[in-house]
Amino acid sequence: MASSTKDLKRVLTRGNLMSMAVGQIIGAGVMVMSISALQMTGRSVNIAFVVASILTVIGAIPTIFYGSIVRLRGGTYSQAALFCGEKFAGFYIITYIFSNMSLAMYATGFTSYFVSLFPGTAGKETLISGVVLTLFFILNFVGTEWMAKIQDIMFYVLIAALVLFTAFGIPRVEWSGYFGNELFGRPLFENGISGLLQAASFLTFATGGATIIVNFSAEAVSPQKDIPFVVIVSTVGVAVLYAFMATCIGGILPPDQVIAAGNLAVIAETIMPRSLYYVFVIGGAMFALGTTLNASIGWVTKPILQAVEDGWFPAWLGKLSKFKTPWVLQLLFYIVNMAAIFLGLDVSTLGKMVLVIGNVVGIVLVAGVMRLPKLFPEQWEKSPFHVSNGVFNTLMILGMAVLVMQAYMNLQDLATWVIFFNIGMFIFSLVYSYLMTKSGKVHMTVSYDLD
Fold it and tell me: Burial code of 426-445, b = ≥16 C-beta within 10 A, e = fewer?
């Protein structure tokens, strides 16, 4: 008999959810993706971050609306089931699993900064990444409460480190030529408006991430009040911080030097005293990746747990430990990601391989949320985010437009084989959903609460 998402402990407060959301946003984003964005658009990377944050908030509006009404115990899977139907839920959970097989990239990213800080550990990257991954899985195994406490500590240190970077960096920015076309012999918009838009679309993955806390709904104390608040505040707050950091990234050292380094440590070493440089690398870079890894391990299993309860997968996968954590699912994710580390796989590619399907699924999910006023008319009327039908539909369409733009931009750089892999996964997910529905093994349960 599979365990139920009803059995999970409701212990996560607004503060816990905030540290989860911010930890999820500040990960590979500003530490790694900002370098790629610098290549795309040059010093206007700060403008790209602002545009990306606006797009991210628009894309998060559906989550804010439904999050103010229902507790989705299975997170995004429950969203798919509730708003889009049984067959789509089966299709969704397969694509979800494949798109979340790359947790190891956060551990390897953590290790890259660790080695830059302690050069004597070079050559032991695989072992260090394995130890880091193991420690965070153990932390999540012993319970959500402990995981949340450690996340909160890392969150405060992380924010302090990034503020330090910004405080030391802003006075060192070459302001006299920053918004011109001569600084470092480079134009402000490296590749014109198209480069800016490409970078902004790319950076939506750096400014996004807050909406994943819907996957903690089953464990949240008051998700209808806390999730919308946290999504808005964390996204806007981090976006402001990112814009200042991006100004430092583009305006202190020549872009080629930063791009060659591949991380922000080279800038931090230039602007900070040695002691604070260590604080930034450990508390900023390493904790950014650590908080993302910790939060990801915490939420990644919850939609699958609900899918197990509904019969899409064998019941034994849904077993809970004495700490009320889905230990079997955690173990499977641990084994897959540990294998990726020790086999030297390009783990960042795993998540990208179903990127287009992810965008398509996101568009369908938003379209499904347009049924919200009809499904829950009384609750919608009482929602603090209630708007007229016209405004509601307009915002939903804008949310879908953002996802369409992301899908288009993502397609530009995908290899042909990756596109075909997406098509193959699309077909496989459809067939799996159809066969499981016909088998009679799937019995959808109500996985949302209104209180």
Answer: beebeeebeebbeeeebebb
